[in-house]
Structure formats: structure tokens, C-alpha cells
Amino acid sequence: MTFDADRLGRSGTAFASAQSEGRAALVGYLPLGYPDVPTSVEAIVALTQGTDGVGCDVVEIGIPYSDPVMDGLAIQRAGTAALQRGVHTRDVFGAVAAVAATGTPALVMTYWNLIEHYGVRAFARDFTAAGGAGLITPDLPPDEADEWMSVSDEYRLDRVFLVAPSSTDERLAMTVAACRGWVYATAVMGVTGARTETSDAAPTLVRRVRALGTGLPVGVGLGVSSGDQAASVGAVADGVIVGSALVSTLLAAEAAGTPRDLTALRALVGDLAAGVRRAERS
Amino acid sequence: MTTRLPDAHGHFDRFGGRFVPEALFAALDQLEKEFRSAQADPAFLEELHSLQTDYAGRPSPLTEVKRFSAYCGNATVLLKREDLNHTGSHKINNVLGQALLTRRMGKTRVIAETGAGQHGVATATAAALFGLDCTVYMGEVDTQRQSLNVARMQMLGAKVVAVAAGSRTLKDALNEALRDWVASVDNTHYLIGTVAGPHPFPEIVREFQRVISTETKAQMLDRYGRLPDAVLACVGGGSNAMGMFADFIDDESVQLLGFEAGGDGIETGRHAATIGEGQIGVLHGMRTYVLQDEDGQTKDSHSISAGLDYPGVGPEHAWLAATGRATYDSVTDTEAMEALKILTQTEGILPAIESAHALAGAMKVGRRIAETDPDARPVLVVCLSGRGDKDVDTAIRWFGLDGSVDATAGA
Fold this sequence. Notes:
The complex is a heterodimer of chains A (282) and B (411).
Chain A: H1 5-20, E1 25-31, H2 37-46, E2 58-62, H3 73-84, H4 92-100, E3 106-109, H5 112-118, H6 120-129, E4 134-136, H7 146-154, E5 158-160, E6 162-163, H8 169-178, E7 183-186, H9 201-211, E8 218-221, H10 227-234, E9 239-242, H11 244-255, H12 263-278
Helix pairs in contact in A: 2-4, 3-11, 10-12, 11-12
Chain B: E1 11-12, E2 15-16, H1 25-39, H2 42-54, E3 62-64, H3 66-69, E4 76-81, H4 91-104, E5 109-114, H5 118-130, E6 133-139, H6 140-145, H7 147-155, E7 159-163, H8 170-184, E8 188-190, H9 201-209, H10 211-224, E9 230-234, H11 239-245, E10 255-265, E11 270-272, H12 274-277, E12 279-283, E13 286-290, H13 315-323, E14 326-332, H14 333-347, H15 353-372, E15 379-384, H16 392-399
Parallel strand pairs in B: 4-15, 5-6, 5-8, 6-7, 9-10, 9-15, 10-14
Antiparallel strand pairs in B: 1-2, 3-4, 10-11, 12-13
Helix pairs in contact in B: 2-4, 4-5, 4-9, 5-7, 9-11, 10-11, 14-15
């Protein structure tokens, strides 16, 4: 699979670097503000490091939202707690800057109303100033994205849209054509959350996107929680996306009375990073 | 006003649309296609008509309420009696239509959100009638204040899931139903109860509720030989109001008046006056007015009426408000409960608290007209969207009734 350098943007370039090492990229998600803003920034930076300095190739920072209709319980719980503890949209720029300082591309993944309310152009401006790479917009399909398309062109930001097993060929082509960076394949029909078995729909969906010949990497998300699962997804996709399982380590740390303890988080990141490095690539 | 909206992309100008995960697009497209083919299928329309007539009890009466009108200035007030429909509200109109669509799509399960429980009861009823599996999501707060309806749904064979997330009211029930649907869309139809959500739901629900205004218009012309001066309805998500407005939108002489829940009063910040106090945003798959904070987080709404306790509103209402074709005002808990009591005691009709907001609106509008134009004799039609049996517990608390008798005889 040869990628189209013109469409890779900054986050897609990280996928290409991973590919040059003969492996899939690891993409990690954590929400801003859980267990509190400073610790969440520390945790988000830890995604890039794991335990031994080997971690995610791309970081997704979530901004908690009051009505997270696409999220399962783990991300809901962390997000609700973060909101109760007073997280604000503007707090994301500090986290973006901290990740950017590590050299790892930082994406923001959030529900569209928060961006729209901040102002699409204003957000792009402040996000770019902080060193951010782009946005993942799970509830903003290209059909509704006119303003974001032009603003992201202006600021040269990556725009990652989602595709699903239920996407028609026509919608798949339209959505992939609108992406810059990479394509987010939600391989499980359902909300976010760790699953013991990852979806068998993933290989088919990845194949369908690649068949479009657009030269964009494909990341597969929803359900991965271990290095072994990362290895199996990494065998078929260009990137392995992990969210809920990472969030769960933070929920468990708080439940154990040690909310600032990132040991388990770092260990899981290390396990996942090792997983994508031992995948048998197809 | 000859424009037919929504447009092909589900937009009412800047409102509406589809802000949903890609996983749902195929189902929304399938639904839209099935709806269009059904609307053009005489057999479908005939079956729906027959269900409305022989099962739901349509057409619903248009009742002139003379003693209640005395509280409304010089106005003549008529009630469109959706409270007399089977299951006790207008919700059955939409549910029967969507249940037929569900069967047409070959799906075997329906899910629904409900606030007051009216839509949940109606959905559970249609599910029983059509032999569909049914799960109803209801905010935990609402399951407590509307426990009678929880039991009704369970008797009808539905599974009722209390939603303990967020504000634990209607918006959270909607969130949970959407989560279910993303995972179950292959065999499940999301039977949305209001003119909200992603396209094509606002249009579908409006069309299945349109019968309210179609009948009202015919009844007015038949009995009075004229159109009303205004039609009035309460607005939460806005389904009974869209039903009441739909056939009058092109009749410019007819004012369209919607009444949102003013809760404890707009000035307290504890209300559900989305159009009045909200800002344009995206919620539940649509662009519309939303009660939101400085960051765009949805604010909790407040109303004594579970069915109006929603921080968003259907996109067509947002459009009608923005264009000025319809006018929206708010009615407080106190005003609504006063209107509920007056209608009950002057006409022997116990309205749902939701509908009482529209009645209070009629009192305000009628009195205002009488002040500004004492010679005017306006005719106001209020959509009495539901009956108040479910609200007796709330009324007991509000009016301080303790359930004790007035006297004992025979002892």
C-alpha cells in the first residue's frame, strides 16, 4: 500500500513512518480533564511514552461532552466526571501543546457542538497556535462539514472522518475523498468500549477503503484492549485505535484511591505498542 | 410560503440535517426511502387510515369550551381533542405510522425514548398490536414522576430501561436510545416520538402528526365556515405543535403559536424555553436551538412537565421561529397548573400538564387581545395533546391534596 504524501497531513505522516518500520501505527485516545486537567495532560503525554519511551504514534484528545451518544460507559464516566470537575473547551490547547512538544501529532476528537460553539475558525486558529494536527469529527459527516472543509484547508489541518461497515460504496467514496490524514474505520457497529473479541468486519472494511485507491492510511477503532488484539488488528489495518481500555486504567486508578497513578496506563500503552510491533502484516 | 421543506438533505434552511455517526446513515437512508415509497402507496395509506379510525378513534373531536373561554378574554376557545385518542395522547398518530414502516422494512424490534411516558406507552401499544419486540428508554427522574406509565408499558410487554446518566430526563433517554440503535440497527427501528433527531425523522413525524391540523381545518370549515385566527400548542420537542401547524403554514391568516415550558420562570434559569433562550447548536443529530452553556455543553432543562423537559427542539420549529411564521412564548409551571385546574373545573376535562401549557397560552393570548382590541372576537384552537390521568400524582403534590375524603357518610 503506497500512501499519497500530499494527503497525509501530519497525522497521516506518522502512519507512513510506522509503515516504513513495517508495522501499523498506534493511536491512543484519552479525554481531557479526567481525573483532573493537570493529571489528564500528564496522562495524555504518557500515551506517547508508555513505560519504556515507546508509545502511541498519534494521540487523540477528547473534549468531554454532556451528551456523548457514541460512547460506552467508560468514556461516559470519565467525561461526566471531568465536566463535573469543571473542564472547559479552552483547556484542550494546553494538552495539545504538551503533546506537540513531544513531536507526536495531536488530534482532537470531539462532538461537533463544542467546536461549533467555540467557533470553527477560532478553534482552528487557537488549535493551530498550540501545535495541533487536526480533528476527528465522529458526529460531523462530510455532508454537513462545508465550513470545516474550508477552514481546515486554510489552516492545513487534518480532517479525519469516520466510515462504518454499513457505509454504502457511494458514501465510503465520498467520505474518504473528504479526509486528509487518514480514514477512521469504526469496525464494530456500536458505541465505544473494550470488547473481548474484535470485529471480523474490520478486514472487509479496510479492504473496501483501500480498494478506492486514495492513498490514505486506514485506522481501525472500537474494541481493542490488549497487545494481542492490537497485533491482530495491526495485521490488517494501517493503524490501531485504542480508547476505552486506556480510559479504564484511569477509572481503576481513581477507584483504587490513586487517581494520579499512571503506572497501569503506561503499562497498557507499552503492551499495545509491543502488540503493533509483533503483528504479522498482510 | 410555498417552499416545501426539508430540502433533499433534510435541511430547513440552516436547521435540521444529519449530525450522526456514519454507522447510522444507511439506516436513515433506508428509512427515508421506505417512507417515500409508503407515502406513495395507497395500500399503506389505507391501512394507516383504517388504524387511525378503527383502532385509535380518529377523527378526534373539536370541542368548544365556553366556560373555559370565559378566562380567555373575548376569545372563543376550541380544543382539538387528542386526549381522546387511544392511549390518551397525540403520540399514537406517529407511532402507528412508524410501526407500519417498521414492518415494511422487515425489522422486528422497536426502541423509543419517552419523557412523560406518553410516547413510550403509545410505542409499547403499537408493538403489542404488531407483535414487535419493544424497549423504552426513560430518564430515571421521569420513571419516578411517571411511575404509572412505567407500569402501563410493562403490562403491554415492553422492557423499560431507566437511564441514570446525565440529567436523567428525556434528553438522556434519547442518548441511550441512540446508543442502542447504533448497535442494533440491523433488526431495530428507532421509533422517535417527536419532530427531532436526524433527517428524516422531523419530516416523518410531522407527516404522521399532520392529521391533527388536517382534521382541525376540515372541522372548522364544516362547522364555522372559517379558519381559526390562531392555533396553539405546547412545544417540547414539538410533535403535537408541528401536527397542529402543518396544514396551516400556508394559511397566512392563521397565527401559529407555540408555548414552551417556562419552568420556575425564565429569569430563574430553570426552564425548558429552548427557542426563547437557547442558541443555535447541534444536538441529537440536528442543528437547532439548544439550551447550552458557554462551552456548548447542553444545559439541564426544568419543567414540571416531563414531556416538555427537553433542552432542544425540532428543527422545523427553529426554522418557523427564525422566519417569524410561528411565534413562541413560554408558560411557567404555576401558569400551566392554574390552567389545568381551570379546565378541569370548568369543562370536566383533565388535561396533561404538557397540554396545560397551551391552555395557559390561550388564556394569555385571549386576555392580551381583549386588552388591545376589545371588539375582537378571536377564535383560538388549542391542541389538547393529552389527558392528565398520568399527572394526578403531580397534581396531588402541587395542589396539596392529601387524598383524604371531604366527608364520611353512613358511619
